[in-house]
Amino acid sequence: MAYVVRATWTATPETVADVRSALAELGPLSRQEPGCRLWIAHQDPQQPLVFELFELYDDAEAYRAHGTSDHFQRIAVPTIPLLADRVRAFSETLDL
Asked: What is the domain extent for residue 30?
């Protein structure tokens, strides 16, 4: 099994460029983490303020390590207050 995180980050018209830039910087660094299997961010062309993140980790502990990483603390933590909304959902893959 793997630990799945689905997140929706909604920017404001004033912060959309900053949020996009932060995610572009965060992605490559997150993908280099030992427990990260997949990290993808995408922007809805019909709703350009909405960013979707899909993350896959070895386990919940790897996700917790992501949240305490230097790059997350430096990039994501100051960006989160710029958001109009942030929603996260957590699940585990079914390895049938």
From this structure: 22-43+67-81
* Spatial distance between the Cα atoms of 35 and 64, rounded to a whole number of angstroms: 10
Question: How many C-alpha atoms does 22 have within 13 Å on its Cβ side?
Answer: 22
Q: Is residue 26 part of a domain?
A: yes
pTM metric for this prediction? 0.92
Q: Report pLDDT digits (tens) over 74-88.
A: 999 999 999 999 999
The runs of H, that is alpha helices, within 1-96 are 16-31, 60-68, 70-71, 77-79
**In 3D, which of 62, 56, 61, 53 has the Cα closest to residue 86?**
53
Residue 71 lies in a domain: yes
